[in-house]
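INFO batch 0412 | record 1 of 1 | parsing
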Amino acid sequence: MDSEPNVEEPSSWDELYNINLMPSELFLKFRKEVQGVRVALNMEIYNAPINECQAKLVFKPLTPEWKWKFIYEPIQHDVRILSKKIPITKFLNLQVGVGHSFKMHATGWKWKLTTCLGGDNVSRIRNKTSVGLFPGFDLRFGWRAEYVLPELTGGLGTGEPMLNMQSGRLQASLDRVEAIITHSDAN
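INFO prediction complete | emitting tokens
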């Protein structure tokens, strides 16, 4: 059995956990649903690593047959068509997109594999939690938790201590807060 000598243990309980409740992204989304299409104006404010504000105009068909959305970013002069997240497995999604930048006179495509799990041996969780405060107004929180589970080891007659404990760690953060205002046409 391998032992890990010189593993530095934290000197206090405060070093074992870190919870950051200051989001680095704040979104304000105005949505209007008209004849099966959602039209949205997204105001996105990023605090880290630099302070930046972006506006996006989003058109998204609400029928299950359509699996794409159209995004226009007026400040960057970018146009994109993105697919919905396509589930590959229970925890793995694929998203593809085609875009054009009018500033750079360039067209390209991107793909992205995403999961709510990650890190080493499923030690990271990323998720979004939505709370409907009243009809037409929702709050969505994007959060993340990274952890290392505590480990107990020991030995007898091996030169190792009979019982050795390495403390676990937790780092959690509230990364994004979205306020979503939706207006639906009641027909």
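INFO post-check: Residues 18-184 form one domain.
INFO record closed
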